Amino acid sequence: MNKISLQKFRRPRLLIIGCGDVGMRMLPLLTPYFRVFAVTSQPARCAELRARGAQPLVANLDQPATLRRLRGLAHTVLHLAPPAAQGGQDVRTRHLTAILPERAQVVYVSTTGVYGDCGGARFDETRAVAPATARAQRRVDAEQMLRQWARHACGQLSILRVPGIYAADRLPLARLQAGTPALCAAEDVHTNHIHADDLARIVVAALFRARPQRIYHAVDDSAMKMGEYFDAVADAYGLARPPRLSRAELRQVVTPALLSFMSESRQLENRRLRRELGMRLRYPTVQAFLQQARTAA
Question: Any idea where the RCK N-terminal domain is (predicted)?
Fold first, then answer.
């Protein structure tokens, strides 16, 4: 075995559960320091993961028997997998906690939706959760399950509550092109954002700097309402701004799922992110990203 191979196998093992877009952005930041194993439920993705330096493992959080080979594989785990689409509990996280080793370090990527509607209030991580949808309740259930595991297994848990993720390929361009309306200014809601590249860096920073059993808001400094966000993207890409309707009018023309995203207003503080994780965001605001995108074009 050559020197490079020895160095590879001496690196600590790290397991990524849910290696989607953000996980793929994390791989170049992780592979120099860890031997990375990435779980996928799609065998067709194995070649892609291997090409990025990860060892793919085919398993499915909905099928506990497929997870047995993961037991004790790594003591550092990044949990980015979303809950299933139905139910009030996150059964997938329950299946995962059953195979986590004692004293492991886990970073869980949750959602700011756990707070529900906060009437536009600005707050930090000490605010109590109040999930208003089944989707958010499943996230709260996952957080609670992981906290319970950390207490019983002496594990180190970090929870990142994440808002709307954007990037060059994750912008609402199709929505704008379709002319989907937004709320009128008087009824609009405050939203929070983070660029996918910055989120990848935040997850990695949490591995090295997070305090045990700590929650962090993985949000940028943008102070925008939802309609302002759509307007800014439309202006940057030369598209028409969306028409504005009242909530009553909007209810008649959009799906209930879409309307639910327009029913919660909150502004999250990110002081912990900066002070404890030492984060300096590449894209501190959506406007900063859009300005760079315009310059590059």
Answer: 15-70
The CATH H-level (homologous superfamily) assignment of domain 8-168+193-221+267-283 is NAD(P)-binding Rossmann-like Domain (3.40.50.720)
> What span, in angstroms and rounded, lies between the C-alpha atoms of 32 and 30?
6
Q: 141 near 89, Cβ under 8 Å?
A: yes
- Residue for token pair 């879409």: 258
Distance from first CA to last CA of the chain, Å, rounded? 48
For residues 39 and 115, what is the distance between their CA atoms, to the nearest angstrom?
29
Contact 107, 158 (CB under 8 A): yes
179: its two tokens: 């002319």
> In this predicted model, what pLDDT tens digit does every residue of 25-74 receive, in sequence order?
999 999 999 999 999 999 999 999 999 999 999 999 999 999 999 999 99
**CA angle, residues 202, 196, 22, in degrees to nearest 5:** 80
Q: What gap in Å lies between CA 296 and CA 255, rounded to an integer?
A: 35
Element (H, E) at 281: none
